[in-house]
């Protein structure tokens, strides 16, 4: 589905995913995610998964890297909804990250602090 959204970029996306496998923190995240399929939402490892994901999010934010590859907003909303509606672990993970100030699933971001919010007029 992603390839259909951004056919001109899919080779770069795939190359980026391969490059991520060189990063031990990303590999740890992928391993936890693959194991999480069998967890209950109450499993304490969900917090470990949230910690791992948040560390990567903070690193990306500090490096001013964006994961936005130009996917259509409606498609992103569909992916977000599908993840949290079909997986209790994803729902809890998103809740934990929300409590920590992160929003979204496909386009995870930290909303600006009130003093950083854009000014109107």
Report on the structure:
This protein has one domain (2-110). It starts with a helix and ends in a 22-residue tail after the last helix. The model has no long low-confidence stretch (mean pLDDT 85). The radius of gyration is 15 Å and the shape is globular. It is an all-alpha fold. The longest helix has 18 residues, at 45-62. It is built from six helices and no strands. Helix 3 runs antiparallel to helix 4 (45-62) and helix 5 packs across helix 6 (88-99).
Question: What's the short version?
Answer:
The protein is 60% helix and 0% strand.
User: Oligomer, anyone?
Assistant: single chain
Q: How confident overall, as mean pLDDT?
A: 85
Helix content: 55-70%
What number of domains?
A: 1
Q: Based on Cα principal axes, name the global outline.
A: globular
Q: Count the strands?
A: 0
Give the topology string: H per helix, E per strand.
Answer: HHHHHH
Number of helices: 6
């Amino acid at each position: 589905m992603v390839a259909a959204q951004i056919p001109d970029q899919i080779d770069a996306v795939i190359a980026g995913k391969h490059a991520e496998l060189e990063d031990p923190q990303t590999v740890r995240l992928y391993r936890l995610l693959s194991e999480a399929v069998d967890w209950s939402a109450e499993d304490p490892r969900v917090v470990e998964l949230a910690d791992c994901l948040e560390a990567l999010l903070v690193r990306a934010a500090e490096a001013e890297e964006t994961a936005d590859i130009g996917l259509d907003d409606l498609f992103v909303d569909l992916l977000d909804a599908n993840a949290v509606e079909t997986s209790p672990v994803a729902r809890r993970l998103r809740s934990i990250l929300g409590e920590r100030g992160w929003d979204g699933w496909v386009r995870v971001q930290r909303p600006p602090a009130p003093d950083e919010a854009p000014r109107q007029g």
